[in-house]
Amino acid sequence: MQILILEDNAERIAAFVMEFEGNPLVVVNDARQAVRLLEHMTFDIAFLDHDLGGVFLPSDERSGYHVAMAMAADERHRDTRVVVHSWNEDAAKRMEADLKASGMKVRREMFGTFDKGILYEEF
After folding, report:
1. What is the mean pLDDT of residues 30-37?
2. What's the pTM value of the predicted model, to 2 decimals?
3. CB neighbours of 116 closer than 8 A, spacing ≥ 6?
């Protein structure tokens, strides 16, 4: 199972690594880097934060929204399950709604409210 994690907080990254130990993780902390990665790789599940760099961001090319829309626009990622885990509730709701509108499997979960079982759940 290939797992993408878009997260900029070192403590959260460590928590993801510990929770999903034994599974192949690709961790990126930059939206542009994540989009470049998506051009060459596919994932079974992606955990996307919205605000990166320790600040609230508009939904532009620096944010997780940019990554979500890149996934939605590319057929290769149509079967990827997406978990939006941002604490920015307004941005997370927008990411969830726009991903669902594109036909992707998505759910919104606050960071820290899910465990390894989420890897095997149907959305």
Report:
1. 97
2. 0.94
3. 19, 20
